């Protein structure tokens, strides 16, 4: 069988999207009553759930707690039924891909949360991938940002992450693809994941590129990834606002 | 934009069905690309790329998947306009027809001259229909395409009729009248109605239909395929049982790989096979895709179709020569009807050079590569790196061989090295023999005990208590080649108080360090033997064991397994025997030459014995006297044991061993035949004795699961050539039993020409089958016999460092002697079935090791002669002896270098050789005449040259280079007279001199070059010689390196072996 064609001559991707189109996004806030903040996000068939506990006092040894800011602890996991090949084998020491995601997520959140407002306290963020279909890292970061918003933790801005890849048709110029699906990730091209804090400002909290990419091609891919972030932000922003309208009596 | 999901059942990596859910987005704004379209949304989308379907055609045509796949060539006609390719159809082409066809379709769609377009119907929200449960793929595709065609018609507001062409009769009936303005007809109908004048299209259509029909009928009738299909397994099994088919292993004749192959039958001698020889498979059609080494099922052809094997000398390059006049007597001939087991492995190949690849045509994606092994057919590789890989030896694997394909398909695996480069060629030899000798892994090394200069390994006191301590009581010493590091056997002899002698053979206790099924054990089992190549070796065990802890070096305590005999003082009959684990300290590590000198009473070599230096003169003399006494006692014992074996008919067979002498830069300096010493034989005889007694003990204790070594008696028909050759010199060889053979070989001695006897012995060696390991449970006791050594039971026990069989035997012996007192001993016993499997593996590996060694020796020989020619270099001219006559040449043995090779008397242009007087030979037109013992060439000018068996001639040695294969040595006849120099005279006299004389001769001329000698006697190809030369360690990288050639290079034997 011929290899997967990322972009057909007619300009469609394998699942019918155009290069710049995102997958269908659905989000809900406050799905878990016990958590201080929680969120659920669907990006196509990728489904993730996040819960935030805190800020609360540091548990365990207090010596670990930084005196001037909050400690953010992140745990990421993948449901056994999530698919995507993560649960096939026992994860390697260090936590495998989920462990890597937790580390990256913590880096992003430490940049996004105004930690100095919560000295000697701890914020726990738990994210679980319920169904994996590409872009798990991006969805993890995005849903964690939503859950933090739901918990009312002070942020520099909304946290959104998105991915982009590059289709190189045999003839013609390469085209950047926004928001890769699992099939497109598996096709082996480059994949760039970008997390932005307050997507309007152009600040990046995370930038991860897998596979080699010529520097001339980086710009369009990076632009596409940022466009993904902006697009996601637009959708999520309306979700958050709708939630606010419903929950508070501020309006009228 | 709507979102739906597609659920696909795909095959996962392990072949399981995997459920995959893919998103599928539907949208309203799919461009229709028709100039007729008035919809604004569509217009905007279409504006992106220019090509639009014109509006001045009478109709639009929508081909079905099947039509696009089969009749794309017709759709390419520029006259056909207004074609809409549906996305569904395009994807079907992509998935089912492959990349080439799909690219053709894509180019067609892009071509602005063609009035056609693609419509992404599956992404259009009104066109897409999900596949229903139970609906076949084809039905769904047709339904989808029809639906899209109908939508298209509506989309264009009915301005243009749409014709859907399909080959599906049901669809024509079902959809034909469903929508007004959308017609569903067959492609033939379409062409007839709409394009009646387009002759070319009709003709093309007919030819495609015909080609398709032919293909279908071919697949039904097996017609037009390159090869007939193999029969199903049940048929084969039934056929074998009923005796209709025969099963065996395919051996391709290396020298006529295109044509001749032989099948050696399995279960030979069973009730229903009266065949007394192999079955000839003539031609590649009859071979039917079987590759050398496969286990195949053959059907015999009727007797009038039987053919004879070719007896003319021939080169591999020459393809099908006229075989008519060169064949021998007809022999059973058959054809392959099925393959039971494919023994495909990694193959070393060479890509065609630039000139060749151009002639292969412009389809550069598929390259026919030539395997290094002549017996393997060319392999078709698809790669784009063909040009870059031209200069390299490359490893490939065969993937499949379809019956429609002349050559097998394969893929590229890795690069070994440049052609002609020593490392690359050695790597090629390793791969060809499936030898994997990677360095030992960390996990294996971790199992090893620690021994470093700072922290040397010590005997543990608990272990010492369990063992018989021989450190103080016995004088133990080892005799090995110079520079050896892995000493796995040591000897001792002492007089007992009652006057009897006690002989001890002490073997390194490897099993103490290598627990059964440990990582090291598993690795050693996989390797099965240490591999000795001409200039290096690959150890079976990590060097910490082989060169240190298990090596019975002098002056250090070592664990050993000892066999101790009490021998009668007069007759040397064994009275008592004891097998035990022991703790020994070897007193001397002697070299063969030193031991021989001591035996001969030559005390000048005392200085060479390190252990004796630095002692007071008196103690030194005393110790020396003890040692000399021990060596001479040993020799006495060995002579007696040998004589006893000789009475039973032990064979002494001849092989010529060549040592490669390398200079500092590891260039080949010289090739030197090895010289035997009596001490070699003494040591060997002790080892044979130990092996024999251990075998007896094992066979008693484990009647069904002991690992022994058998040497089946040879088939009589293989001796035919030997008998004929001997009769040329007037000798008669009696081959009925090993005793008769040994005696008649001794008698067949021409006093004037010692080479004759040597050649006859080597021919006898070749007629023998190989000795094999076997499990006692797998064959009846009378077959345990060892033909070559004339012993009823034999095994390998004495070299556990470099043979895995010995490790198994050690474990068995421990289990037998300790009586299963400890628990873990029980685990070491392998069941008969597993042992059989293990034996097969070890036998295979041994054969691979021998082949690798032989091939590496040939490699070095070729490298030695490569840059020299007979004119410029005296070393390339040597004396040769004719040992076989063929129709167009003779086979010649060169004693000086131990080379056997073919010399032609008729060259490719049909000229024959002639030797006017004693001058050098010339090629002239003429004819050849062959009789039984001689061959005569007669030129048109009347000169004639007669060569008979065992004539001495002068030959020039040259290397025939070959790009794709190993280089080979070629001989050419220079003069019809012996080549005599002092050098060659010595070389062919020495092996034949009576042994005692020889010993003196050699010990007197203690040349530097002759020190690191090995033995020159090869018992039954490899049997005992393994034991003498066991000790080649890493020191082989040094200046003087030795090699041993197990079998002579003989072109006639390869079809069989």
Automatic annotation (TrEMBL), chain A:
Record domain Exoribonuclease phosphorolytic: where: 21-153
Coarse class of the primary localization is cytoplasm
Taxonomic classification, please?
A: Eukaryota, Metazoa, Chordata, Craniata, Vertebrata
What PANTHER family has UniProt attached to this entry? EXOSOME COMPLEX COMPONENT, EXOSOME COMPLEX COMPONENT RRP41
Q: Which GO terms describe its molecular function?
A: RNA binding
User: What family is this protein classified in?
Assistant: Belongs to the RNase PH family.
Q: What is this protein called?
A: Putative exosome complex component RRP41
Keyword Cytoplasm recorded: yes
Family matches, as Pfam families: RNase_PH (PF01138)
* Cellular compartment(s): Cytoplasm; Nucleus, Nucleolus
- Could you list this entry's UniProt keywords, alphabetically sorted: Cytoplasm, Exosome
Q: How does this chain assemble?
A: Component of the RNA exosome complex.
**Example GO biological process term?**
nuclear mRNA surveillance
Q: Which organism is it from?
A: Zosterops borbonicus
Gene Ontology CC annotation, any one:
nuclear exosome (RNase complex)
Please name the InterPro entries in this protein's record.
ExoRNase_PH_dom1, ExoRNase_PH_dom2_sf, PNPase/RNase_PH_dom_sf, Ribosomal_Su5_D2-typ_SF, RNase_PH
Protein task: Non-catalytic component of the RNA exosome complex which has 3'->5' exoribonuclease activity and participates in a multitude of cellular RNA processing and degradation events.
Automatic annotation (TrEMBL), chain B:
Keywords in alphabetical order, please: Cytoplasm, Exonuclease, Exosome, Hydrolase, Magnesium, Nuclease, RNA-binding
Name the enzyme's class: hydrolase
Highest rank taxon of the organism: Eukaryota
Q: What is its main location?
A: cytoplasm
Q: Where in the cell is it found?
A: Cytoplasm
Query: GO biological process: any one?
Result: gene expression
Q: Name one GO molecular function term.
A: enzyme binding
Name the chemical reaction catalysed here.
Exonucleolytic cleavage in the 3'- to 5'-direction to yield nucleoside 5'-phosphates
Is Nuclease among the key words of this record? yes
In this chain the RNB domain maps to 467-819
One GO cellular-component annotation of the UniProt record comes to: cytoplasmic exosome (RNase complex)
Per its UniProt record, the required cofactor names are:
Mg(2+)
Q: SMART domains, per this entry?
A: RNB
EC number(s): the record gives: 3.1.13.1
Q: Which InterPro entries match?
A: Dis3_CSD2 (IPR041505), NA-bd_OB-fold (IPR012340), RNase_II/R (IPR001900), RNase_II/R_CS (IPR022966), RNR_Ribonuclease (IPR050180), Rrp44_CSD1 (IPR033771), RRP44_S1 (IPR033770)
What the record says about family reads: Belongs to the RNR ribonuclease family.
Q: What name has this protein been given in UniProt?
A: DIS3-like exonuclease 1
């Amino acid at each position: 069988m011929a290899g997967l064609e990322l972009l057909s001559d007619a300009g469609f991707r394998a699942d019918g999207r155009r290069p710049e189109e995102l997958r269908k996004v659905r989000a809900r806030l406050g799905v878990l009553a016990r958590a201080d903040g929680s969120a659920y996000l669907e990006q196509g068939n990728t489904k993730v759930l996040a819960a935030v506990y805190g800020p609360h006092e540091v548990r365990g040894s207090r010596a670990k707690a930084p005196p001037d800011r909050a400690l953010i602890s992140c745990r990421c996991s993948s449901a056994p039924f999530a698919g995507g090949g993560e649960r096939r084998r026992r994860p390697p020491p260090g936590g495998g891909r989920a462990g890597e995601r937790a580390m990256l997520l913590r880096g992003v959140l430490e940049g996004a949360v105004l930690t100095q407002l919560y000295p000697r306290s701890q914020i726990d963020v738990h994210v679980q991938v319920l169904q994996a279909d590409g872009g798990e890292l991006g969805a993890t970061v995005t849903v964690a940002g939503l859950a933090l918003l739901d918990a009312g933790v002070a942020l520099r801005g909304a946290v959104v992450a998105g991915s982009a890849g590059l289709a190189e048709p045999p003839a013609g110029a390469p085209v950047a693809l926004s928001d890769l699906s699992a099939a497109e990730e598996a096709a082996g091209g480059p994949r760039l994941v970008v997390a932005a804090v307050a997507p309007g400002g152009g600040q990046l909290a995370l930038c991860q590129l897998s596979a080699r990419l010529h520097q001339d091609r980086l710009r369009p891919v990076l632009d596409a990834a940022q466009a993904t972030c902006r697009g996601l932000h637009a959708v999520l922003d309306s979700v958050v606002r709708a939630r606010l309208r419903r929950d508070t009596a501020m309006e009228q | 934009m709507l979102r739906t999901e597609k659920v696909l059942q795909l095959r996962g990596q392990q072949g399981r069905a995997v459920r995959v859910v893919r998103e599928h987005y539907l949208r309203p704004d799919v461009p229709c690309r028709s100039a007729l379209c008035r919809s604004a949304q569509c217009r905007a989308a279409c504006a992106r790329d220019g090509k639009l379907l014109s509006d001045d055609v009478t109709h639009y045509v929508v081909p079905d998947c099947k039509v696009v796949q089969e009749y794309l060539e017709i759709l390419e006609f520029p006259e056909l306009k207004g074609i809409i390719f549906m996305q569904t159809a395009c994807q079907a082409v992509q998935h089912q027809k492959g990349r080439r066809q799909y690219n053709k379709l894509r180019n067609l769609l892009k071509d602005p001259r063609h009035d056609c377009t693609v419509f992404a119907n599956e992404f259009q929200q009104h066109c897409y229909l999900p596949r229903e449960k139970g609906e076949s793929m084809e039905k769904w595709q047709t339904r989808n395409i029809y639906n899209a065609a109908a939508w298209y018609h509506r989309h264009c507001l009915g301005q243009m009729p749409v014709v859907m062409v399909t080959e599906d009769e049901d669809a024509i009936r079902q959809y034909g009248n469903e929508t007004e303005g959308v017609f569903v007809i067959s492609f033939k109908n379409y062409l007839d109605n709409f394009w009646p004048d387009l002759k070319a299209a009709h003709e093309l259509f007919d030819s495609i239909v015909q080609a398709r029909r032919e293909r279908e009928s071919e697949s039904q009738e097996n017609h037009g395929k390159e090869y007939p299909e193999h029969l199903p397994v049940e048929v084969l099994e039934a056929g074998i049982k009923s005796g209709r088919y025969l099963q065996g292993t395919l051996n391709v004749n290396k020298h006529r790989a295109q044509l001749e192959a032989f099948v050696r039958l399995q279960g030979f001698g069973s009730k229903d096979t009266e065949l007394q020889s192999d079955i000839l498979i003539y031609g590649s059609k009859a071979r039917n895709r079987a590759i050398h080494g496969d286990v195949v099922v053959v059907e015999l052809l009727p007797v009038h179709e039987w053919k004879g094997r070719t007896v003319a000398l021939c080169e591999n390059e020459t393809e099908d020569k006229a075989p008519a006049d060169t064949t021998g007597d007809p022999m059973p001939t058959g054809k392959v009807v099925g393959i039971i087991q494919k023994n495909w492995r990694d193959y070393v190949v060479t890509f065609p050079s630039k000139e060749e690849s151009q002639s292969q045509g412009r389809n550069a994606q598929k390259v026919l590569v030539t395997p290094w092994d002549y017996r393997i057919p060319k392999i078709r590789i698809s790669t784009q790196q063909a040009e870059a890989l031209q200069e390299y030896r490359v490893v490939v694997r065969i993937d499949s061989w379809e019956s429609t394909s002349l050559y097998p398909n394969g893929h590229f695996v890795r690069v070994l090295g440049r052609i002609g480069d020593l490392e690359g060629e050695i790597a090629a030899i390793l791969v060809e023999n499936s030898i994997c000798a990677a360095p030992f892994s960390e996990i294996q090394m971790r199992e090893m005990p620690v021994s470093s200069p700072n922290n040397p390994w010590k005997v543990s006191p608990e272990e010492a208590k369990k063992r018989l301590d021989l450190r103080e009581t016995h004088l133990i010493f080892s005799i090995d080649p110079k520079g050896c590091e892995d000493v796995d056997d040591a000897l001792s002899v002492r007089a007992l108080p009652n006057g009897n002698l006690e002989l001890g053979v002490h073997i390194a206790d490897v099993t103490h360090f290598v627990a059964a099924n440990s990582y090291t054990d598993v690795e050693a089992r996989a390797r099965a033997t240490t591999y000795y190549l001409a200039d290096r070796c690959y150890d079976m065990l990590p060097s910490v064991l082989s060169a240190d802890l298990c090596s019975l070096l002098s002056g250090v305590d070592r664990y050993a397994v000892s066999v101790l005999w009490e021998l009668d003082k007069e007759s040397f009959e064994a009275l008592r025997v004891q097998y035990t684990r022991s703790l020994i300290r070897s007193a001397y590590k002697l070299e063969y030459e030193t031991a021989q000198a001591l035996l001969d009473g030559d005390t000048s070599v005392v200085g060479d014995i390190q252990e004796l230096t630095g002692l007071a003169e008196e103690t030194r003399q005393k110790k020396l006297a003890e040692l000399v006494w021990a060596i001479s006692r040993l020799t006495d014992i060995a002579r007696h044991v040998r004589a006893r074996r000789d009475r039973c008919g032990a064979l002494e067979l001849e092989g010529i061993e060549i040592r490669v002498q390398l200079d500092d830069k590891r260039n080949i300096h010289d090739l030197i035949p090895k010289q035997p010493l009596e001490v070699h034989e003494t040591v060997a005889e002790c080892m044979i004795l130990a092996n024999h007694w251990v075998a007896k003990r094992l066979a008693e204790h484990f009647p069904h699961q002991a690992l022994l070594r058998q040497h089946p008696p040879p088939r009589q028909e293989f001796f035919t050539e030997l008998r004929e050759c001997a009769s040329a010199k007037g000798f008669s060889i009696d081959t009925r039993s090993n005793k008769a053979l040994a005696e008649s070989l001794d008698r067949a001695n021409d006093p004037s020409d010692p080479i004759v006897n040597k050649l006859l012995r080597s021919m006898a060696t070749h007629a023998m089958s190989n000795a094999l390991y076997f499990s006692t449970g797998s064959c009846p006791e009378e077959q345990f016999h060892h033909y070559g050594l004339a012993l009823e039971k034999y095994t390998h026990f004495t070299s556990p460092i470099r043979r895995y069989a010995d490790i198994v035997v050690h474990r068995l012996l421990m289990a037998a002697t300790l009586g299963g007192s400890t628990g873990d001993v029980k685990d070491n016993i392998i069941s008969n079935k597993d042992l059989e499997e293990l034996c097969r593996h070890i036998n295979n590996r041994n054969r691979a090791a021998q082949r690798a060694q032989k091939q590496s020796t040939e490699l070095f020989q070729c490298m030695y002669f490569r840059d020299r020619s007979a004119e410029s270099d005296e070393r390339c001219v040597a004396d040769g002896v004719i040992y076989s006559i063929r129709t167009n040449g003779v086979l010649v043995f060169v004693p000086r270098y131990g080379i056997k090779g073919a010399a032609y008397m008729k060259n490719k242009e049909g000229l024959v050789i002639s030797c006017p007087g004693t001058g050098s030979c010339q090629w002239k037109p003429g004819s050849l005449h062959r009789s039984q013992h001689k061959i005569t060439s007669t030129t048109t000018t009347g000169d004639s040259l007669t060569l008979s068996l065992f004539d001495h001639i002068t030959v020039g040695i040259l290397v025939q280079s070959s790009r794709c294969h190993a280089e080979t040595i070629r001989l050419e006849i220079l003069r019809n007279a012996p080549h005599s120099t002092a050098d060659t005279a010595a070389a062919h006299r020495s092996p034949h001199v009576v042994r005692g004389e020889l010993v003196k001769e050699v010990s007197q001329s203690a040349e530097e070059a002759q020190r690191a000698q090995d033995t020159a006697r090869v018992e039954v190809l490899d049997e005992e010689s393994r034991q003498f030369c066991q000790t080649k360690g890493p020191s082989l990288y040094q200046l003087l390196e030795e090699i041993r050639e197990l079998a002579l290079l003989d072109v006639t034997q390869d079809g069989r072996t």
